[in-house]
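To: structure desk
From: M.T.
Subject: fold request, one chain
Message: Could you run this one when you get a chance? Sequence is below, nothing fancy, just the single chain.
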Amino acid sequence: MEEDELYRKWMRLVENLEREGIIKSEKVKRAFLRVPRYKFVPERYRAYAHVDEPLPIPAGQTISAPHMVAIMLELAELEEGMNVLEVGTGSGWNAALIYELVKRDVYTIERIPELAEFARRNLERAGYKDKVHVIVGDGTKGFPPKAPYDRIIVTAGAPKVPEPLIEQLKVGGKILIPVGSYHLWQELLEVIKISEDNRVKIKNHGGVAFVPLIGEYGWRE
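Reply: Done. C-alpha coordinates follow.
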Protein backbone atom coordinates (compact mmCIF):
# COMPACT_ATOMS: atom_id res chain seq x y z
CA MET A 1 0.00 0.00 0.00
CA GLU A 2 1.31 3.46 -0.94
CA GLU A 3 2.29 5.92 1.81
CA ASP A 4 -0.46 8.38 0.71
CA GLU A 5 -3.12 5.72 1.10
CA LEU A 6 -1.72 4.59 4.48
CA TYR A 7 -1.84 8.18 5.72
CA ARG A 8 -5.40 8.76 4.45
CA LYS A 9 -6.56 5.70 6.38
CA TRP A 10 -4.65 6.88 9.44
CA MET A 11 -6.31 10.31 9.28
CA ARG A 12 -9.73 8.64 9.17
CA LEU A 13 -8.91 6.63 12.29
CA VAL A 14 -7.77 9.80 14.12
CA GLU A 15 -11.00 11.56 13.11
CA ASN A 16 -13.04 8.58 14.40
CA LEU A 17 -11.19 8.59 17.74
CA GLU A 18 -11.90 12.31 18.05
CA ARG A 19 -15.57 11.84 17.17
CA GLU A 20 -15.88 9.08 19.80
CA GLY A 21 -14.44 11.43 22.44
CA ILE A 22 -11.30 9.31 22.96
CA ILE A 23 -8.99 11.97 21.53
CA LYS A 24 -10.15 15.03 23.47
CA SER A 25 -7.41 17.62 23.01
CA GLU A 26 -6.02 19.33 19.95
CA LYS A 27 -2.45 18.57 21.07
CA VAL A 28 -3.00 14.79 21.25
CA LYS A 29 -4.74 14.87 17.87
CA ARG A 30 -1.81 16.84 16.41
CA ALA A 31 0.69 14.30 17.82
CA PHE A 32 -1.29 11.39 16.34
CA LEU A 33 -1.33 13.06 12.92
CA ARG A 34 2.42 13.71 13.08
CA VAL A 35 3.32 10.17 14.18
CA PRO A 36 1.24 7.57 12.29
CA ARG A 37 1.40 4.04 13.70
CA TYR A 38 2.32 2.45 10.35
CA LYS A 39 5.88 3.80 10.77
CA PHE A 40 6.33 1.63 13.88
CA VAL A 41 4.99 -1.81 12.89
CA PRO A 42 6.69 -4.65 11.00
CA GLU A 43 6.37 -4.26 7.22
CA ARG A 44 3.74 -6.99 6.87
CA TYR A 45 1.37 -5.17 9.26
CA ARG A 46 1.63 -1.67 7.76
CA ALA A 47 -1.64 -2.10 5.87
CA TYR A 48 -3.43 -2.81 9.19
CA ALA A 49 -1.89 0.02 11.25
CA HIS A 50 -5.08 2.11 10.99
CA VAL A 51 -7.19 -0.68 12.52
CA ASP A 52 -7.95 0.11 16.17
CA GLU A 53 -6.47 -3.09 17.59
CA PRO A 54 -3.12 -4.23 19.00
CA LEU A 55 -0.71 -5.64 16.40
CA PRO A 56 2.23 -8.06 16.76
CA ILE A 57 5.78 -6.74 17.02
CA PRO A 58 9.01 -8.74 17.61
CA ALA A 59 9.73 -10.87 20.69
CA GLY A 60 6.09 -11.94 21.13
CA GLN A 61 5.02 -8.43 22.18
CA THR A 62 2.35 -6.09 20.79
CA ILE A 63 1.93 -2.47 19.79
CA SER A 64 -1.10 -1.09 21.65
CA ALA A 65 -4.39 -0.22 19.97
CA PRO A 66 -4.52 3.48 19.05
CA HIS A 67 -7.52 4.16 21.35
CA MET A 68 -5.58 2.83 24.38
CA VAL A 69 -2.56 5.00 23.61
CA ALA A 70 -4.81 8.05 23.18
CA ILE A 71 -6.57 7.39 26.51
CA MET A 72 -3.24 7.21 28.38
CA LEU A 73 -1.82 10.31 26.70
CA GLU A 74 -4.95 12.33 27.48
CA LEU A 75 -4.83 11.22 31.14
CA ALA A 76 -1.11 12.08 31.32
CA GLU A 77 -1.88 15.76 30.58
CA LEU A 78 1.55 16.26 29.07
CA GLU A 79 2.86 19.80 28.64
CA GLU A 80 5.85 21.15 26.75
CA GLY A 81 9.03 20.91 28.81
CA MET A 82 7.92 18.01 31.03
CA ASN A 83 10.49 15.35 31.93
CA VAL A 84 8.93 11.99 31.01
CA LEU A 85 10.03 8.40 31.52
CA GLU A 86 8.34 5.59 29.60
CA VAL A 87 8.58 2.02 30.89
CA GLY A 88 8.18 -0.50 28.06
CA THR A 89 9.43 0.93 24.76
CA GLY A 90 7.93 -1.73 22.52
CA SER A 91 7.90 -0.34 18.97
CA GLY A 92 8.91 3.20 19.97
CA TRP A 93 5.59 4.66 18.76
CA ASN A 94 4.34 5.87 22.15
CA ALA A 95 7.69 7.48 22.98
CA ALA A 96 7.60 9.43 19.69
CA LEU A 97 4.07 10.63 20.51
CA ILE A 98 5.26 11.69 23.98
CA TYR A 99 8.11 13.66 22.38
CA GLU A 100 5.62 15.53 20.18
CA LEU A 101 3.72 16.55 23.33
CA VAL A 102 6.64 17.56 25.57
CA LYS A 103 9.15 18.75 22.93
CA ARG A 104 12.16 17.62 24.95
CA ASP A 105 14.24 14.46 25.24
CA VAL A 106 12.20 11.39 26.24
CA TYR A 107 13.74 8.41 28.06
CA THR A 108 12.24 4.98 27.54
CA ILE A 109 13.31 1.62 29.00
CA GLU A 110 12.94 -1.76 27.28
CA ARG A 111 14.03 -5.04 28.89
CA ILE A 112 14.19 -7.04 25.60
CA PRO A 113 17.30 -6.12 23.55
CA GLU A 114 15.74 -7.28 20.26
CA LEU A 115 12.75 -5.00 20.83
CA ALA A 116 14.94 -2.06 21.87
CA GLU A 117 16.80 -2.41 18.56
CA PHE A 118 13.50 -2.60 16.63
CA ALA A 119 12.34 0.60 18.38
CA ARG A 120 15.63 2.40 17.69
CA ARG A 121 15.38 1.60 13.96
CA ASN A 122 11.77 2.80 13.85
CA LEU A 123 12.60 6.01 15.74
CA GLU A 124 15.56 6.77 13.50
CA ARG A 125 13.49 6.29 10.33
CA ALA A 126 10.72 8.47 11.74
CA GLY A 127 13.13 11.29 12.67
CA TYR A 128 13.39 10.81 16.46
CA LYS A 129 16.91 9.39 16.76
CA ASP A 130 18.26 12.22 18.94
CA LYS A 131 14.96 12.97 20.65
CA VAL A 132 13.98 9.60 22.14
CA HIS A 133 16.60 7.64 24.09
CA VAL A 134 16.04 3.88 24.34
CA ILE A 135 17.69 2.23 27.35
CA VAL A 136 17.93 -1.56 27.74
CA GLY A 137 17.19 -2.49 31.33
CA ASP A 138 14.67 -3.33 34.04
CA GLY A 139 12.01 -0.64 33.77
CA THR A 140 10.52 -1.49 37.16
CA LYS A 141 13.63 0.15 38.68
CA GLY A 142 13.03 3.35 36.72
CA PHE A 143 15.97 5.37 35.40
CA PRO A 144 17.58 7.37 38.25
CA PRO A 145 20.08 9.37 36.11
CA LYS A 146 17.31 11.54 34.65
CA ALA A 147 14.99 11.65 37.70
CA PRO A 148 12.91 13.28 39.05
CA TYR A 149 10.14 12.94 36.45
CA ASP A 150 6.96 14.92 35.88
CA ARG A 151 5.33 11.84 34.37
CA ILE A 152 6.07 8.12 34.18
CA ILE A 153 4.02 6.14 31.66
CA VAL A 154 4.08 2.35 32.02
CA THR A 155 2.91 0.28 29.05
CA ALA A 156 2.74 -3.16 30.70
CA GLY A 157 0.65 -4.60 33.53
CA ALA A 158 2.21 -4.74 37.02
CA PRO A 159 1.18 -6.65 40.19
CA LYS A 160 1.53 -3.33 42.09
CA VAL A 161 3.01 0.12 41.53
CA PRO A 162 6.84 -0.30 41.65
CA GLU A 163 8.28 1.67 44.57
CA PRO A 164 11.29 3.02 42.62
CA LEU A 165 8.94 4.71 40.16
CA ILE A 166 7.16 6.57 42.98
CA GLU A 167 10.55 7.59 44.43
CA GLN A 168 11.68 8.98 41.06
CA LEU A 169 8.53 11.09 40.60
CA LYS A 170 8.33 14.80 41.44
CA VAL A 171 5.76 15.82 44.06
CA GLY A 172 2.65 16.62 42.03
CA GLY A 173 3.81 14.34 39.24
CA LYS A 174 1.99 11.21 38.21
CA ILE A 175 2.41 7.67 36.99
CA LEU A 176 0.00 6.00 34.59
CA ILE A 177 0.20 2.25 35.04
CA PRO A 178 -1.96 -0.85 34.50
CA VAL A 179 -2.10 -2.89 37.74
CA GLY A 180 -3.73 -6.29 38.20
CA SER A 181 -3.30 -9.87 37.03
CA TYR A 182 -0.34 -11.33 35.13
CA HIS A 183 -2.11 -11.64 31.83
CA LEU A 184 -4.81 -9.66 30.08
CA TRP A 185 -6.73 -7.96 32.88
CA GLN A 186 -5.67 -4.93 34.85
CA GLU A 187 -7.02 -1.59 36.06
CA LEU A 188 -5.50 1.59 34.63
CA LEU A 189 -4.30 3.62 37.63
CA GLU A 190 -3.34 7.29 37.78
CA VAL A 191 -0.93 7.57 40.70
CA ILE A 192 -0.32 11.14 41.90
CA LYS A 193 2.58 11.78 44.30
CA ILE A 194 1.42 14.14 47.04
CA SER A 195 4.44 14.35 49.38
CA GLU A 196 8.22 13.93 49.56
CA ASP A 197 7.74 10.82 51.74
CA ASN A 198 6.18 9.04 48.73
CA ARG A 199 2.52 9.24 49.74
CA VAL A 200 0.24 8.94 46.73
CA LYS A 201 -3.35 9.48 45.69
CA ILE A 202 -4.75 6.92 43.24
CA LYS A 203 -7.50 7.29 40.63
CA ASN A 204 -8.84 4.18 38.90
CA HIS A 205 -9.72 4.56 35.22
CA GLY A 206 -11.17 1.08 34.64
CA GLY A 207 -10.25 -2.18 32.98
CA VAL A 208 -7.46 -2.59 30.44
CA ALA A 209 -5.45 -5.48 28.95
CA PHE A 210 -1.64 -5.27 28.71
CA VAL A 211 1.28 -7.69 28.49
CA PRO A 212 2.94 -8.31 31.90
CA LEU A 213 5.55 -5.94 33.35
CA ILE A 214 8.54 -8.18 34.05
CA GLY A 215 11.26 -7.11 36.49
CA GLU A 216 12.49 -6.95 40.06
CA TYR A 217 9.51 -4.83 41.16
CA GLY A 218 7.07 -6.41 38.68
CA TRP A 219 6.29 -9.98 37.67
CA ARG A 220 8.94 -12.69 37.60
CA GLU A 221 9.49 -14.29 34.19
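Reply (cont.): Helices lie at 3-19, 26-34, 66-76, 93-102, 113-126, 163-167. Let me know if you need anything else for the meeting.
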